[in-house]
Specification:
Elements lengths: L5 H10 L4 E5 L3 H14 L3 E5 L1 H7 L1 H14 L5 E8 L2 H9 L4 E4 L13 H17 L3 E6 L17 H9 L23 H11 L3 E4 L21 H10 L4 E4 L7 H9 L12 H8 L3 E6 L1 H17 L6 H23 L4 H7 L5
Parallel strand pairs: 1-2, 1-8, 2-3, 3-4, 4-5, 5-6, 6-7, 7-8
Helix pairs in contact: 2-4, 2-13, 5-6, 6-8, 8-9, 10-12, 12-13
This protein binds zinc ion.
Length: about 350
């Protein structure tokens, strides 16, 4: 099946009260892991690439890998989404390369660091919506700023990884390409429900990313966050006002203790950290959250699996020796999320309902 627009999948998710994981990719193995997980769970799926991912993999490779995925899994509805487009040009080039959905993140300026004004955000988002909708492509916008809550590790492991990302690829944390946890709570950046309502009316976005206290990357919370910390009530309020807008939770990796443990067991360094509990995401799904961005968990699964192979078999040097277990480990995480979010079983239902052929 050809790639489908985000709107098509999220409308079905809304009508049937489930959420859809959006998993980030940079290479073939990650795409394969997601597609195999989607096949086994019969899930519609969102595959997304940040600006950094597009530059790492190159647009032509990415485009053809995604076309291969749609050919190999004709039964699975697949959305190809630009994560955190920093300006209209980024979104337009994504559309040119076959993306069926784009995020115009005008909550930050083009440098992906400086907060943008409300008027700036409306202007660039509306510009993208006008072009994208004419091409049958969906648009996600963002109101409020992510990444303002959480904590950076006290002593970043082996030094400069985070900084390196920030300075070179502007791609820390969950690869979204946007600001990572900077430490400290700054509630002024949480989404204001009044603004959210105006923003949707003025831009006509299909989906809206809301800032409720999550941040990108592995280091989100020092203790297990509650619904209060995560401001789940804010999601509920926004959903009450915008019942027909699909809400998006960014930075929604759960950073499971068992994945941390594997990395530590085989020589990696990770400070103790907590992500967004799956049960809080499930609560969000009851209140309009339809797209849930997950990247860190997949990265951790891959890294843990590769570390394990290297630790247990120092003689391994065939890349397949470690990429295959890495792919399997990511697939397991993606399957677990697909089941938890409720998207499992819905590929067949979408076909049965005539939403897709
Ligand atoms: Zn994000």
């Amino acid at each position: 099946m050809p790639l489908v627009p985000l709107r098509l999948v999220l409308d079905h998710a809304a009508a049937n009260n489930y959420g859809v994981g959006a998993f980030n990719v940079n290479n073939m193995e990650q795409i394969q892991a997601i597609m195999e997980a989607a096949k086994e769970t019969d899930s519609p799926v969102i595959v997304q690439a940040s600006r950094g991912a597009r530059s790492y993999s190159q647009d032509n490779y990415l485009r053809h890998l995604m076309l291969a995925a749609s050919e190999l899994y004709p039964q699975i509805p697949v959305v190809m989404h630009q994560d955190h487009g920093n300006c209209p040009a980024t979104c337009f080039s994504a559309i040119k390369y076959g993306f069926t959905s784009v995020m115009m993140d005008g909550s930050l300026m083009e440098d992906a660091k400086t907060p943008g004004s409300y008027d700036y955000n409306v202007g660039v988002t509306r510009e993208v919506v006008q072009v994208a909708h004419a091409m049958g492509v969906s648009v996600e916008g963002e109101i409020g700023c992510l990444g303002q809550v959480g904590h950076a590790p006290a002593a970043p492991a082996k030094g400069e990884a985070a900084h390196h990302d920030l300075e070179t690829e502007k791609e820390p944390g969950d690869t979204d390409g946007h600001a990572a946890s900077t430490g400290g709570m700054d509630t002024s950046h949480l989404t204001d429900p009044d603004e959210a309502e105006r923003f949707v009316a003025e831009t006509k976005v299909d989906a809206l990313a809301v800032a409720i206290g999550t941040s990108h990357g592995a280091y989100k919370f020092k203790t297990k966050p509650t619904g209060e910390v995560l401001k789940m009530s804010l999601i509920e309020e926004i959903h009450r006002r915008l019942p027909n807008t699909h809400l998006v939770m960014h930075g929604s990796s759960s950073v499971p203790e068992e994945l941390q443990a594997v990395i530590r067991q085989y020589g990696g360094t990770m400070e103790e950290t907590y992500g967004v509990p799956v049960e809080e995401i499930q609560r969000g799904i009851k209140h309009g959250v339809r797209k849930i961005n997950v990247d860190t968990d997949c990265r951790m699964a891959i890294t843990g699996a590769i570390r394990k192979v290297f630790a247990e078999n120092p003689r391994a040097f065939d890349p397949r020796d470690y990429l295959k277990p890495a792919r399997e480990a990511m697939k397991a995480v993606v399957m677990a999320r697909m089941i938890a979010f409720g998207q499992a079983g819905n590929a067949t239902k979408m076909r049965a309902a005539g939403v897709i052929k």
